[in-house]
Amino acid sequence: MVIRDKIFSTITTVFKRHGGVTIDTPVFELRDVLTGKYGEDSKLIYDLADQGGEICSLRYDLTVPFARWLAMNPMIQNIKRYHIAKVYRRDQPAMSKGRMREFYQCDFDIAGVYDPMLPDAEVLRVAKEILDSLNIGKYTIKINHRKILDGLFEVCGVPADKIRPISSAVDKLDKMPWEDVRKEMTEEKGLDPEAADKIGQYVMKKGGKDLLDDLKTMTELTSNASFAAGLADMELLIDYLEVFGVMPVLSFDLSLARGLDYYTGVIYEVVTEASAPPSGKPAKKGPKPKNDDPDADRSNDDSIGVGSIAAGGRYDELVGMFANSAKGRIPCVGISFGVDRIFSITKARMTEAVRGNEVDVYVMAFGGKGFTGLVKERMQVCKTLWDAGIKAEYFFKVKPKLPQQFASAEKNGIPFAVVLGEDELAAGVVKIKEMGLPEGHPEKNGVDVKLDDLVNEVKARLASKGLHEEKHAKAVEEVQLEAKDAA
Amino acid sequence: MVIRDKIFSTITTVFKRHGGVTIDTPVFELRDVLTGKYGEDSKLIYDLADQGGEICSLRYDLTVPFARWLAMNPMIQNIKRYHIAKVYRRDQPAMSKGRMREFYQCDFDIAGVYDPMLPDAEVLRVAKEILDSLNIGKYTIKINHRKILDGLFEVCGVPADKIRPISSAVDKLDKMPWEDVRKEMTEEKGLDPEAADKIGQYVMKKGGKDLLDDLKTMTELTSNASFAAGLADMELLIDYLEVFGVMPVLSFDLSLARGLDYYTGVIYEVVTEASAPPSGKPAKKGPKPKNDDPDADRSNDDSIGVGSIAAGGRYDELVGMFANSAKGRIPCVGISFGVDRIFSITKARMTEAVRGNEVDVYVMAFGGKGFTGLVKERMQVCKTLWDAGIKAEYFFKVKPKLPQQFASAEKNGIPFAVVLGEDELAAGVVKIKEMGLPEGHPEKNGVDVKLDDLVNEVKARLASKGLHEEKHAKAVEEVQLEAKDAA
C-alpha cells in the first residue's frame, strides 16, 4: 500500500497540475445505465441482488458513471475531472499480472465543446507526464481513431452491422497472430474472406508521423468520408503533440481498436516493456531504444508487451445518451490508468525493501531488579513526541524485556530508540540511540539527552538523516521509487 | 472533494504517527462472513445477485473484513492497521446529515495480545489527535464497557437471552426519552417492568473519574463478576488516559451500548456539538465549556448533539470466529471515523469559498486584426510551466477572445495570467498579470518579463503569495480549514 499510495499521489499531482478537480460518483449505478455500453464485455458486470428498490449493478468503469453524472448536472458545461476509485468485473483474476475482480482506476477526463484535438492533446500530455513520473520503464502510447477504423472497414467491404465485432477482433492483434484474428473474423463472425484479407493489408501498419504521410497518399482510403475525417483529426493532433513533446513515446497503430462501444474519435492505450511480453516471443536482443530518443523507431519494438496500463479515447455521444436535452450532449475525452497493473510493474522493479511502518522513534525502558516497566513514563514520552508531530510507538506491555523492545523496533526498521532508565529519568535524562550503528561507532551505545531537549534532539537527528517529522514517509518513498532505467 | 481530501490526509497523518500501516481488503465478502455480526442492523447488508460462483455481499463496515483477513493470515500476530474505504448499507439516506447508502469510513485498529488497556488507551489518544486536528468544534468521546453493561443488566434481572436486545434499546437513550426506551424494553422486548426501572436508575449516570469512584462504592454492582472486571478495566484505562491527556474530552456514560454484536470490552462513540442537537431541545444558553478546560463538566452539556462521527471498541472474539486454530484468536481494539459526517460539519463551519481548481497560471493570448490565436505558442508556454511543476491551463479554442479567457481564469479563482501578444512574443517577452488587483495598482496592467525568465518570475510571484509550485493546494486548504472556534 506504500507503493500504491505513491502511485496515487504521483497521478493526482499531475491531474491537478492540469486543472483537474475530483468528483466522487457512487459505486452503484442503475442497471439500465450500464447496459449496452461495454460491447462484448457486458457479461462481466456485477449485479446487486433485488432486495427491493432500484435494480442496480456495480460500476464497470468510471467513465459511464461520469457521463451519467454530467448529464444529470446540465449546469456543468465543461470540466476537467479526475476520479480515483475501484471498479468491478466478473473476470477470472490473474493476480500476478494485476488483473482482479475489483481494482483501482485513475481517470482524467475533459468535458466540453472545444476546438478539435485541443483537449485530446492535453489528455495525452497528462498521460506522458504521469508515465514519466512512475517507475515503469519504457512505455509506448498506441493511438488510433475510430473514424479511421470505421472508414477502413467500409472501404474493405465490412457491412455496417459487422463493424463493431470486426473491430473487436482486430483489437486482439496484439495478443494473437493475424491468422487467428482472420479466422475469428471469417469463421466466427461471418466476414467475407476477401474483406478480411484487405483489412489485414492495412491493420498491420504502425508508425509515427511517417504513417500519417503514408496514409494521406492512399486515395482508396482517403476518398472515404469517415477515414478522411479521422485522418484530419489525427494530423492536427500529431501537430499539437509535437508541441507538447509527446511524439517520442507515440505509436500510430492501425490495429488498435478498443472494445468499448462508446468511443467515437481518437483512442489510445499505453503498453510497457515490463507488462509481460507474450511468451514464446523472445525479447529483442541488443541495445533498446530509449524513451527520450526521438529518432528511435518504437513502433516495431517487439519487446513491448501486451498488457495495457492505461487506455482511453474520445466519447462524444455517451453523455447525450443520458441527457434529456441538447444542452446535455457534452463531448468528452479521457484516459484511465490501471493502478494495479502499474503497481505490479513498479513492485517488480523495486530494489529496496519497503519498511513495515513509518515510525521514527521507538520508546523503550529497561531496569534491573525490581524494574517497574516505566509504562506511564514511556506513554508520557510518546505523548511528548506525538504532540511535536513525531511518529513514535512503544511496546504494549507493562514490564517488557529490553530485547523484546529492540526486536519490535528492528522488525519495522525504526531508525531511533529512546531508552528510559529509572535512575536516568530521576535525573531528567533519557538516551537516544540510533539503531543499527556498527560496532565501535562512538554513539553505538546511545547519547544521553535532557528530557526537556528530547524533541529538539530527535528532530535534529531525523533531519540529519534526511527525515523530517511527518515528511518521512514521502522521503522514503521517493528514494525507493526513484526511477532506475534498466537500459 | 477538496475538503474531503483534507480530512483524509489529516486522519492518515495521525494514523501513521502511531505506526499505522494500511491494508486494502475487498469490497465483497462471502455472505456467511457478514451474517450474525451486526445485530439488528443485519437487514441493511447489500447482497450481490447470484450470477454463479460464491454468494457475496458488500462490506457493511471495515472491521469484519479486517478480522476475516487477520484470521486468514495467521503469521500476522499483531498489527496497527488503518483503512480508508467505502462501506455499504441499505438505509434511507439523509444527505444533509451525512447519512448515505455508500459512505467512507476511516478505521484504525490495534490487533495483538498485549497488556490490558494499553492499545485501548492508544486508540483513544489517536481519536483525540484526529478530532483536535479537524475543524469540527467541541466534541465529546463517550465511553463505556460491555462487561459493565452486561453486569449491570444481570444485577437488574435481565435474562441472558435479552441482554443484547435490551442493550440495543438502552443505546437509543441519546435519541429518545427514557419513557420511550422503557416502553421498548417492556412492551416490545418483554422485559419485567421492575427490571426496566432498575436499569433506568443506573444508565442515566455519566461523568468522568468521579463516576468511576461513585460506582466503586455500589456493592450491589461490584459484587457482580462481569461488572467488576469491566470496572477494573475502566479504572486502568482512565489512569492511562490521564497520562495521554484525553480525559478533558471524555464522558464515561453508562447509557452507551453500541448495537453491534462483536464488541467485548471498552466501547466508545464521538459526538459533537455541531452534529445536529435533537430538535425541540434548545441549546444551553450562556458561555459553553471549552475542550481545553479540564474542569468543565461536559457530561451533562445538553447542547451536545446526537450524531456520532466516530465509534469503536474492543472486539476480542471476532477474529477467532474466522480462525481455524487457537493461534488465530487475536484480540483487537479499534475506531472508525465517519468521514461524510465529519465533512458535513466541516463544510457548515467553513467561512471561505473553495476554489474551483488549483491552477495557478492561466495562459492566454490577444491580438488585433488578423490575430491567429497563438494556440501553439500558448501550448508551448503551458508545457514550459508544466515541466517546471507549475499548475497551468489555457483556453481550448484556436482563436479565443480575451474576455472569454479572463472569465475562464476568474471562474476558478486562478491567481495569475500569462498573456501572449504577437509583437511581444517576437521580442521574446510575455506579460504576467496578477488577477484581481485594484484600480491604480502599479502592476494592474501586468509586468513584461522575458520568456526565458518566465518560470522563475512565476515561481517568485507564487512564493510571495505564500504559494509554491505543487504545494498550493495544501496551503489553500490549511488556510480555509483553520479551526475557528465559535466560542
Automatic annotation (TrEMBL), chains A, B:
Residue span(s) of domain Aminoacyl-transfer RNA synthetases class-II family profile: 1-342
What SUPFAM superfamilies has UniProt attached to this entry?
Class II aaRS ABD-related, Class II aaRS and biotin synthetases
* Any one GO BP annotation for this protein: histidyl-tRNA aminoacylation
What are its E.C. numbers?
Answer: 6.1.1.21
Which compartments does it reside in? Cytoplasm
**Spans traversing the lipid bilayer:** none
Q: Does the keyword ATP-binding apply?
A: yes
Reaction equations catalysed:
tRNA(His) + L-histidine + ATP = L-histidyl-tRNA(His) + AMP + diphosphate + H(+)
Residues recorded as binding L-histidine, renumbered to this chain, are: D61, L62, T63, R89, Q105, D109, R258, Y262, Y263
Q: Where is the composition biased (Basic and acidic residues)?
A: 289-301
CC annotations in GO: cytosol; mitochondrion
One annotated GO molecular function is: ATP binding
Q: Where does the record place the region Disordered?
A: 275-308
Indicate yes or no for the key word Cytoplasm. yes
Q: Which domain of life is it from?
A: Eukaryota
| UniProt keywords, alphabetically | Aminoacyl-tRNA synthetase, ATP-binding, Cytoplasm, Ligase, Nucleotide-binding, Protein biosynthesis
Recorded hits in PROSITE patterns, A to Z, give:
AA_TRNA_LIGASE_II
Q: What PANTHER family would the database entry show?
A: HISTIDINE--TRNA LIGASE, HISTIDYL-TRNA SYNTHETASE
Please give the family membership noted in the entry: Belongs to the class-II aminoacyl-tRNA synthetase family.
Functional description taken from the UniProt entry: Catalyzes the aminoacylation of histidyl-tRNA in both the cytoplasm and the mitochondrion.
Q: What is this protein called?
A: Histidine--tRNA ligase, mitochondrial
Which species expresses this protein natively?
Sphaerosporella brunnea
